[in-house]
Amino acid sequence: MNRQLMCVTCGSTYPLEARRLRCDCGGLLDVQIDMDSALSPEALAATFESRLPSHLPQDLSGVWRYRELVLDLPADDIVTFPEGRTNLYTLNPTPLGLSALWAKHEGENPTGSFKDRGMTVAVSWARHQGARALICASTGNTSASLAAYGARAHLPVFVLIPNGKIAQGKLAQALAYGAHTLQIDGGFDDAMHAVEQMATQHNLTLVNSLNPFRLEGQKTIILDSFFQLGNMLPDWIVVPGGNLGNTSAFGKALIEMKALGLINRVPRLAVIQAEGASPFARAAQGDFQHFEPMQPETVATAIRIGNPVNYDKAVRAIRFTNGIVTSVTDAEILQAKHDLDRQAIGCEPASAATLAGLRRLTREHVVHPGESALLIITGNLLKDPDTTIALATGQTAALGVQGAPSLDACANQPRHVPSDPETIARIIEEELQ
């Protein structure tokens, strides 16, 4: 399919090969598909289905399997593990009064988060263009993913992370995979400002979600869910909101799927932010007429972002889907994390914002009884083991979580017992009564 870059603000277009992150007007860029060159919806579905038995690396990928709607690249340029082969789990909808509830677990990707879907496309395109080196700012998941894909592509990787503001499970990946890791004095937004400037001035390829090719990979979360659900989508798709890359990608996916005739009805997006990092939710209260960055603080490190670069695309996504944006407290996030973990849908805190937000939206009668919803679980439980241990041992107050006493019932502390089998057996029997 024919493609070009298009500015979401002024509509200016550029060749797909143009090495730029923004339009001359400063606006964000989209990879625009020429819909006139697209296959019919029936032919697209048949093509995607035909690749399921294939053992080719690009067909095994849950991203490149949909390449007609992602990007056309020679197979030798594609950097894949493969990724995107994530499960969709059925949850009990009754407590929320819903007709159906699912969780799409993007934490099952190779490096444990949804970032791998976008990174395979961004890094493959970078290799195709002969990139000198790759760079990103990160709260953790992006750095882990880029480090892995950069290693597979044999390209140097530089990651900027906030000093002391990154979960150890994520930092460990960046270090282990060989990324040059630079801890800055400042937050994610400071790092993002720095990498965008350096990418332009020093011929480095930026792979944050400001890079439009990243979003082409992330939109396959919606495509994958559509086909896993038997060519349908629920009434609501619920996603955490940080830098708003997924929000933007999901909106783009739904715009394209509607235009291509894959769907007739557009689901509503619900974007959930942490209260301490909720600039998008605050802007939504005034119908996006005013945006003000904030100094973010939340236990959900993956969405601890106060000035999201994808704001304009995310606004488009909410307006197109008649969506909603709301925020939840850290205590609500951790309670939801506990509840998801107990169903073996283990996730990092940011992922649990989805369930916490859905609970709020049902309480407020925004999501109505009998509707269906899909939770996007963005990261694996082991991404942030420290928070998981704190929750299980009743130590959330030490994390600075307001309302920590409400989480005491979530504790599941290990017990020190003697090595005597009879004593151990007695304790087990007591627990089984």
Automatic annotation (TrEMBL):
Pathway: Amino-acid biosynthesis; L-threonine biosynthesis; L-threonine from L-aspartate: step 5/5. Its EC number is 4.2.3.1. Keywords: Amino-acid biosynthesis, Lyase, Pyridoxal phosphate, Threonine biosynthesis. GO terms for biological process: threonine biosynthetic process. Pfam families: PALP. It catalyses: O-phospho-L-homoserine + H2O = L-threonine + phosphate. Its cofactor is pyridoxal 5'-phosphate. The modification N6-(pyridoxal phosphate)lysine is found at K115. Coiled coil: none annotated. InterPro entries: Cys_Synth/Cystath_Beta-Synth, Ser/Thr_deHydtase_PyrdxlP-BS, Thr_synthase-like, TrpB-like_PALP, TrpB-like_PALP_sf. Belongs to the threonine synthase family. PANTHER family: CYSTATHIONINE BETA-SYNTHASE. This is Threonine synthase. It comes from Candidatus Cryosericum hinesii. The lineage of its organism: Bacteria, Pseudomonadati, Caldisericota/Cryosericota group, Candidatus Cryosericota, Candidatus Cryosericia.
